[in-house]
Amino acid sequence: MRAIIHVDMDAFYASVEQRDNPALRDKPLIVGGHAQRGVVLAASYAVRSFGVHSAMPMARALKLAPHAVVVRPRFSAYAEASEQVFAIFERYTPLVEPLSLDEAFLDVTASMALFGPPAEIARRIREETAARLSLPASAGIACVKFVAKIASELAKPNGQREVRFEDTVDFLADLPLSRLWGVGPKTARELNRAGLNTIGDVAACDIAWLEARLGSQGRHLWELARGHDPREVVPDRVAKSVGAEDTFEEDLTNLERLRSHVHAQALRVGRRLRKAGIRGRVVQLKVKFSDFKVITRRTTLRTATDDGQILYGAALQLLQRAYQSAKPVRLTGVSVQQFDTDGTQQLGLFSAQPRSAKLNATLDRIAERFGSTAVTTADLAQNCADQTGGNSSHAPGLANPGSSSPTKRAG
User: Fold this and answer.
1) Beta bridge partners of 279
2) Where in the chain is the domain with CATH 1.10.150.20?
3) Are 28 and 69 spatial neighbours (Cβ–Cβ below 8 Å)?
4) Are 355 and 319 in contact (CB under 8 A)?
5) Three-state secondary-structure class, residue 295
6) Taking 80 as the threshold, does the pLDDT of residue 411 lie above it?
7) Which residue has the higher pLDDT, 46 or 212?
8) Residue ranges matching CATH 3.30.70.270 in the chain
9) Is it the case that residue 159 has pLDDT exceeding 80?
10) What is the pLDDT of residues 175-205, one digit of tens each?
11) Catalytic residue among 17, 80, 97, 103
12) Domain 241-408's class?
């Protein structure tokens, strides 16, 4: 019998903001875009009682909760928190299937010999994310993915729920049809017309009648309603690329501001490559303009690398060629492709790669313990100050991306 845990971070973006700014704790908080044309990216539980939810237009959300505190999103902070969360998951099992930045399935069947029953593993994961990262999480535990995900949804906020194998059918029986994967409004209306209103109604149906009405989907829904879900937890397949990108709250027209964002993205990609034990040869820059036109530019390095500074140097050259000062930029992204995975790298006669590798390893250990901003470069420190109310109007950028000096910031 498999043991599956679905872990879902609670109001993830909002929780990160409240963690990083204690003045926001317990406040009705919205992480979102422009008041007139933006959407809600996350809503704290204190504001959800007013009907505010993610993906809602900001204008509508502010009518429902005019007293809410609105903060601009910080995607790099959420990406960093996500990496820390998944590092905790991977301490308990290598079988982690990400669904998004803030949720994943974990197969802990083989982990029980080390860590105890699945409910105990879920409890330890949630306690560790709270203690180490100050972020709340909910978890569902079941024998199949479908039931584990429903259980975690019902356990929110900051709770967990276990559904034992023998209780699965009863657990599902009274739930609405909308909980079945694959049942949208159209299918739900058709099932309602046939007198089916709950998952238990579907489970009690004659399967031949259901197949005659819905085709192959009928058997799929009948099996789910009975708790049958044979899908395995599939860890990340070997990636064809490793990347990082951010959509800006306001379109940017300043090249120096764009440079600092590309720099931060390149450093994030470098950390992810090193964590995965791979190096890449092809660096790609993605730019989306305010008119939603997307361009990509790429270059091939002489040798594969996992060094964020080298990636930044290549990405900056691509940015300078792609930048069009008359067109505001909505998004940038840096990615690396064409991997060497054997851990070897040809060094030039005067290469300083061993020294940079030692430096990167040290910085990775500091970032894992204190966060990526504990030690950073001058342009990124300035950009962070700008975003949090610093005196400078824009980041200065780096004249030589390969020689930027780390700047120590208060931890």
Assistant:
1) 340
2) 168-225
3) yes
4) no
5) strand
6) no
7) 46
8) 1-161
9) yes
10) 999 899 888 888 888 889 888 999 999 999 9
11) 103
12) alpha beta
Most confident stretch, 70-79, 107-116, 292-301 = 107-116
Specify whether the CB–CB gap between 172 and 199 falls below 8 A: yes
pLDDT average, residue stretch 10-23: 96
Q: Tell me what pLDDT residue 104 has.
A: 95
345 contact partners, CB below 8 Å, separation of at least 6: 279, 303, 304, 305, 353
pLDDT of residue 358: 58
Q: Tell me phi and psi for residue 323, to 5 degrees.
A: -65, 135
Name residues whose C-beta falls within 8 Å of residue 406's C-beta, 6 or more positions apart in sequence: 363, 375, 376, 377
Is the pLDDT higher at 371 or at 118? 118
Is the alpha carbon torsion for 351, 357, 362, 366 positive or negative? positive
Is 83 designated active site? no
Report the topology of domain 1-161: Alpha-Beta Plaits (3.30.70)
Instruction: Tell me the C-alpha distance between 297 and 320, whole Å.
Output: 11
Token digits of residue 399: 């004249």
The ranges of the chain annotated as CATH 3.30.1490.100 are 241-408
Write down how long the chain is.
411
Helix, strand, coil in percent for the chain, rounding step 5: 45, 25, 30
Of residues 301, 284, 277, the one with CA closest to residue 402: 301
The confidence score (pLDDT) of residue 351 equals 44
User: Side chain identity at 118, as an amino acid letter?
Assistant: P
Q: Could you give the 3-state DSSP secondary structure of residue 407?
A: strand
Mean pLDDT of the chain: 83
What gap in Å lies between CA 130 and CA 43, rounded to an integer? 19
343 three-state secondary structure: coil
372 or 103: which leads in pLDDT: 103
Q: Are strands 241-252 and 160-162 parallel, antiparallel or unpaired?
A: unpaired
Which class is domain 168-225? Answer: mainly alpha
